[in-house]
Design a protein that fits this description.
Elements lengths: L1 H73 L1
Length: 75
C-alpha cells in the first residue's frame, strides 16, 4: 500500500510539473504577442507622426509664401 501512495504522489508531481511548463510556455507566448503588438503600434504611430510633420512643414511653407506675397503687395 505504501508504494501505491508513493506512485500517486509521483504522478501528481509529474502532472504539476507538466502544467507548470505549459503555463510558462503560455506566459512566454502572451509576452511575445504583447511585445509584437506594442511594436506594431509604435511603428504605426511613428508613421503617422512623420506624415503629420511633413504636412505641417508643407503648410508652414505655404503660409510663409502667402504671408510674403501679402506683405509685398501692401508696400
Amino acid at each position: 500500500m505504501h508504494s501505491y501512495y508513493t506512485f500517486i504522489a509521483l504522478d501528481i508531481a509529474a502532472q504539476r510539473t507538466v502544467e507548470a511548463a505549459r503555463e510558462r510556455l503560455a506566459a512566454t507566448g502572451r509576452q511575445d504577442r504583447d511585445r509584437s503588438t506594442r511594436r506594431a503600434a509604435a511603428v504605426a504611430l511613428a508613421a503617422v507622426s512623420r506624415l503629420v510633420a511633413g504636412t505641417v512643414r508643407r503648410l508652414d511653407a505655404c503660409v510663409a509664401d502667402d504671408l510674403a506675397k501679402s506683405l509685398a503687395s501692401t508696400h
